[in-house]
Design brief:
single chain, two-stranded antiparallel ribbon, 6% strand, disordered N terminus
Length: 161
């Protein structure tokens, strides 16, 4: 006859995590799952905010990279920009092309892309939207908690590098 302890908090098959000192710790979801869900939620929210002004995330990246460069960027330099989320190197170049067509970027005689007045106004609007996204993202999270979360994720990445 098998004895079942009705007061047991976890089943035999339930995952448990042990703390570094060997005592039982509550089961936690895998960090990859938590990070992935956070990434998806942040991207969905960011992309929706930018879509409200007819801007894509790659266009946002292109604008920010062009404006940060003292004399603008060439298409070759834009292709060299580190693009996150597994997107290819061409995504920012295509975004820049769309912004040229839209009148937000202009190519000089030397081929360097710079922001037009329309581009500067659009970038200002996008920055306002993205500042609100960050406020909504952070919510009641303190700067210290935010910094800790980013630090932990960077350390996890470094451990696996």
């Amino acid at each position: 006859m098998t004895h079942v302890n009705a007061s047991a908090k976890t089943s035999v098959n339930a995952p448990t995590n042990a703390s570094r000192n060997g005592t039982a710790a509550p089961a936690q979801p895998p960090i990859a799952l938590a990070a992935w869900r956070a990434t998806e939620a942040i991207l969905r929210h960011s992309q929706a905010a930018l879509a409200g002004i007819d801007l894509t995330q790659p266009q946002w990246w292109a604008l920010n990279n062009v404006v940060r460069a003292e004399h603008g960027l060439t298409r070759h330099e834009i292709r060299a920009v580190d693009v996150p989320y597994g997107m290819g190197t061409e995504v920012t170049a295509h975004a820049a092309d769309a912004l040229v067509h839209r009148g937000w970027l202009v190519a000089g005689a030397d081929g360097r892309l710079t922001l037009t007045d329309r581009g500067l106004a659009g970038l200002a609007t996008a920055k306002e939207r993205m500042a609100r996204v960050r406020e909504e993202l952070v919510g009641d999270i303190t700067e210290e908690e935010y910094a800790t979360a980013v630090s932990v994720l960077r350390r996890v990445t470094d451990h696996l590098a």
